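Lecture notes, part 5. Sequence design as translation. It can be helpful to think of inverse folding as translation between two languages: the language of shapes and the language of residues. The source text, in structure tokens, appears below.
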């Protein structure tokens, strides 16, 4: 015979079970029992660099307990720097209804934002997410988007400083940038503000399209004692092999924003460790999967910068690398 007390206990336990099912903890338990789906949209070329970024993200997820042989499905797409391709892949990924989408470059994040205001989006390597309209503020993003910024404007001062240290005779500097990017204007402005103190004259150059890049660097090389700063942009990444080759052809000392430029023949690179940023982005995906709202997660700034010096290129340009730079360098390419 079931007593009234036992019935009440049963009702109480049942109520607890219902509460757990509808609470964030209960939702997390339910989600942990299935394979979560993560979309990844790259705004870079389909090459080893893109593969390395996805591998870094995959490693970060694995460290947090998410593996593709157990509870994770990754849908990876790359726009290869093509705007129309990026928009098409954005629509495709949103149509798959993933739990979270991870994306890099302003162009693909903008394409995703046009397609959804509900699916959480974690961006990686966006220069100025506030000016781009992706977040309300760095501290309180609001909406369905948050992530990891690719640089702060202070990097502009470092690029100019390092270029002058390795090529002190440089008095004219071309700044290769994409004028269509909101963050690009801020980066250029930071360099312009410091140019007089370094005794250099700046010339803004357009990075959109191979013929435009070649015309700009050829014209720059006609002035003696010229150098080059390449700002962060998807277009520069797409055309990086051409830019490095032209800097070599026209004997322009140049500094670049990412390690892969120096490793492919560029003179200097100073910028974020982008693979570290991709690995760290997994922490935000993990928190969102466990119930956090993207709008409550502050945009993270880069935590790690790296300096790489290519001695072979320096010798080809007739430059002597100061010991100060060699000591500061995270990597020296012989």
């Amino acid at each position: 015979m079931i007593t009234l007390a036992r019935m009440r206990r049963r009702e109480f336990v049942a109520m607890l079970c219902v509460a757990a099912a509808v609470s964030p903890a209960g939702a997390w338990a339910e989600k942990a029992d299935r394979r979560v789906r993560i979309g990844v949209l790259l705004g870079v070329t389909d090459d080893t660099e893109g593969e390395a970024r996805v591998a870094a993200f995959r490693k970060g997820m694995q460290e947090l307990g998410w593996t593709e042989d157990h509870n994770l499905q990754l849908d990876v797409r790359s726009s290869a720097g093509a705007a129309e391709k990026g928009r098409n892949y954005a629509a495709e990924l949103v149509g798959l209804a993933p739990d979270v989408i991870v994306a890099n470059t302003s162009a693909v994040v903008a394409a995703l934002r046009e397609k959804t205001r509900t699916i959480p989006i974690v961006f990686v390597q966006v220069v100025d997410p506030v000016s781009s309209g992706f977040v309300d503020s760095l501290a309180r993003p609001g909406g369905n988007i948050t992530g990891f910024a690719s640089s702060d404007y202070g990097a502009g001062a470092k690029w100019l400083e390092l270029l002058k240290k390795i090529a002190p005779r440089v008095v004219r500097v071309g700044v290769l940038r994409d004028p269509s990017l909101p963050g690009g204007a801020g980066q250029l402005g930071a360099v312009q503000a410091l140019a007089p103190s370094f005794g250099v004259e700046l010339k803004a150059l357009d990075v959109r399209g191979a013929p435009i890049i070649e015309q700009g660097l050829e014209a720059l090389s006609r002035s003696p004692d010229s150098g080059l700063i390449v700002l962060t942009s998807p277009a520069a990444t797409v055309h990086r092999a051409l830019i490095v080759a032209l800097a070599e052809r026209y004997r322009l000392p140049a500094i670049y924003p990412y390690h892969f430029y120096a490793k492919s023949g560029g003179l200097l690179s100073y910028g974020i460790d982008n693979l570290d940023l991709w690995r760290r982005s997994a922490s935000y995906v993990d928190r969102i999967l466990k119930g956090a709202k993207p709008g409550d997660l502050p945009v993270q700034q880069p935590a790690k910068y790296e300096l790489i010096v290519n001695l072979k290129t320096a010798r080809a340009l007739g430059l002597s690398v100061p010991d100060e730079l060699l000591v500061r360098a995270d990597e020296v390419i012989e």
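The translated text above is only one of many valid answers, since several sequences can fold into similar shapes. The longest helix spans residues 4-22.
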